[in-house]
Amino acid sequence: MCGIAVLVGPWSEPESKMREMLAAQAHRGPDDHGMWLGNGVCLGHRRLSIIDLSANGRQPMCNENGTVWIVFNGEIYNYAEIGRTLEAKGHVIRSATDTEVVVHAYEEWGESCFRRFNGMWGLVLWDSQSQVALCARDRFGVKPLYYHANGDRLAVASEIKGILAAGVSASLAEPYAAHVISRARLDDWGSQTLFAGVSQLPAASILRFSSRDGVGVPQAFWQLDPESAAETFDYSNPVDTVRELMGDAVRVRMLASDVPVGSCLSGGLDSSSVVALAARDAPGRLTTFTVEYPGTPSDESRFSRLVAEQFECDSVRLSPDPKDYLDVLEQITWYMDEPPVTAPGVYSQWKVFQLAGSRVKVVLDGQGGDEIMGGYQGHVDAYMRSLLGKILSGRRGSLGELLTTLPEAARFRAESPLLTLARVLGSQRLRRVYGERSMRVRAGGISREFWNAHRIGDSDKQGVGPRDLVNEVLLNDLLRDVLPAYLHYEDRLSMASSVESRTPFLDYRLVEYMFGIPGPDKLRGGKTKSLLRKAMSGITPQQILDRKDKMGFSTPTSAWFRNELRDPIRDYLLDDRTRNRGVLDMSQVERTIRLHEAGKIDAGSQIFQWLALECWFRCFLDRRVSGQASSVSPRPSCSAPIGC
Predict the structure, then answer these.
(1) Which of 83, 89, 136, 291 is the most exposed place for a label (fewest CB within 10 A)?
(2) DSSP 542-581
(3) Average pLDDT in the 23-48 region?
(4) What is the DSSP code string of 51-109?
(5) C-beta of residue 585 within 8 angstroms of C-beta of residue 446
(6) Domain range list for the chain
C-alpha cells in the first residue's frame, strides 16, 4: 500500500514538483520513498512496506532491461501463483514483491494482464519503447487514481492533493458540487471530482497517455455480467460455495503480508463474519479494533465484545470524546480531498483506523457485504416489488411471501405496514417524484440561486434488466450509488493513519458468484443477507446472525449537536465566512439548527452535511492548497485548523 505520483511530458522542474507531490502524500507511505527520472517522464513513490520489507521492494521498479517501469499502490493477492507461471515462461523475478510480478505480467500478456489479478490497485506503467504511460485501477475502485491531462502533459497521483502539489490550478466544479450536495452523496464512481481539471480514472479501467497523442479515453478491462456468472459457476449448493469463497477471500488477504494483519470489528454481521474467519487463519491471537459509545443508541459493544471473546481476540477499544469532533472533521476533510457528506460515521471510522495504526499496518474490513449480499432496506423494498410483479402476473404463491415480508420491512423502518406497502405499490412515476422530493430535502439549505444555476440530473444507471429487479438494485449500489463513496472513505481514512485496509467481500470471485444468484434468493422472508447468514451458521455467533438492526459506523452526532457540540456547531456554520459563500440558504440553516436543538426534529445528518461542505470550502478553497503542498503538514495537528 503506497502513494504514487507521475509526471509525463514537458513539465518544468519535474524533480522539484515530484518532491512536492510525494510530500503531500507522505501519510500513504511513511516507510520509504523513491523517484526515477527518465526521458520525458518522472515517477515517484511513497512506500508502506507490507510485502518484501527489504530494499528489493523499493519503487519505482523496472524489468531487467529497464524498458518497463512501474509505480504501484495496492496488493495483488494471487501474485505468488502468477509469479510461478511467469517464471515457468522464462521471466526472472528478483524480489518477493507483487509489484515486480505486475511488471512481468504486463510484459507477457500486455493489457490483458489485469484480468488475471485478484486484488486492489491504482498503478502507472511506463513503457519506454512506446513512450506510453498506462494507468490502471482495480475492478471496484478500492484504490484511487487521479489525473490531470493538458495537451502533451500528464500528472497522476493517488490523491487529488498530490496533483495540486504539482502546481495544477483547479477551481470548484460547481455543477458536480450541486450534484454532491443535493444527493448528500459523494458518488466517486465516474470520472468527475469537485476540482475542475482533475479527473478520476473509473474503476476497472485503463487509460493510455503519450506526449505525442495526448490522453486517450478510459477503456474497461472488466465488467460485471450477472448472466455470464450464472452460466460460469456451479450453483447446486450456494450456501457451501459462499462459505468456501468467503473463507478463501479472507485467507488470501491474511497470507499476502509480511507484517501482522488485524481486523476492524463493529459487532455487525459483516465485520463479525470476517473476524470469525480471520481468527481461524491468524498465526496467533487476532487483534481487533473497535470504537464504542456506551449508554447511547449507537452502542454495539455487547456484540463486538461477544465476538472478540468467542474468538479469543486481542480486542483494542476506544470510547471517543466528542470535544475533538470539529478538529477531526477538518483533518478528515484534508485527507479526503472531497467533503465526506455521505456519512456522519466517518468520525468513528477515523477513530478505528487511528486505533489500528498504533498496532498494525494491515486490517481487514467488511465493506461490500451489504452491496453483494443484500443488506439494505431498499433491497428488501425491491424484493417486495418483485414479489408484487409475480402476483400481478398470476403467480399467487408469492402472496404469502409478500405478507410475511411486509411487517418485517415496516418494523425495520419504524413505520406502519400501510406506509411501507404504499411505497412498494407506488408507480415508477410516483417513485421518481418521491426521489425528487427526497433530493430537495437532502439539498435543504442550498441557496436557490446556486441550485438553479448548477443543478444537474442523474446519469443513466447500469442495471441487469427488469427480469431481476433485486440484482439491478444491488448492482447499482455496488458500482454506482453507495459503495464507491464508502470505498473513498475507507482508503483515505485508513491511509491517513498509514494503514492498509483489505476488503474480503470484494474478492471478485465472490462478487461474480453472488451476482449469478437470483436476487430474491438473497432476501427470502424479508431477511437481509439471508444467504450469508446461512453460510456463516456455525462459524459466526448465533446472536450476530440473528441481528436485525443495522448501524454501520454509527456515531451519536444528533445528540452531540444538541449538547456537547451545540455552541461550536453554531459558531462554525453561522459565521460570516459561511454566510458570504452564497451556497447555503442561511435562514433555513438557522431554522433547522434551532428546531434540532429544541428536539422538534432530528436534523443530525443534514447538519453534518453542511459541516462537511463548509470544512471542505475552508480547507481547499479559502486556503488555496493548490501548488503549496510543501507547506502542508502530512498529518495536520488537532489543535490547528488543518494546516492547509
Answers:
(1) 89
(2) HHHHT-----SS---HHHHHHTTTHHHHHHHHSSHHHHTT
(3) 97
(4) S--SGGG-SSEE-TTSSEEEEEEEEETTHHHHHHHHHHTT----SS-HHHHHHHHHHHH
(5) yes
(6) 2-174+193-220, 226-373+480-545, 378-476, 557-631
pTM: 0.91
pLDDT score of 475: 94
The domain 226-373+480-545 is placed in CATH, from the list 2.170.16.10, 3.40.50.620, 3.60.15.10, 1.10.10.60, at 3.40.50.620
Amino acid identity, position 641 = P
Q: Which amino acid is at 583?
A: V
Give every CB contact of residue 9 below 8 A, 6+ residues apart in sequence: 40, 151, 152, 153, 154, 211
CB atoms within 10 A of CB 439: 15
Question: What are the tens digits of pLDDT across the range 488-504?
Answer: 999 999 999 999 999 99
Q: What is the CATH number of domain 2-174+193-220?
A: 3.60.20.10
Please answer whether residues 164 and 627 qualify as being in contact, where contact means their C-beta atoms are separated by less than 8 angstroms.
yes
Asked whether residue 343 carries a pLDDT value surpassing 90, the answer given is no
Q: How far is CA 302 from CA 64, 216, 235, 290, 412, in A?
A: 55, 53, 36, 11, 20
Residues 6+ apart with CB under 8 A from 580: none
**Does position 637 have pLDDT exceeding 80, yes or no?**
no
- How far apart are the C-alpha atoms of 3 and 30, rounded to whole Å? 10
Is residue 453 over pLDDT 70? no
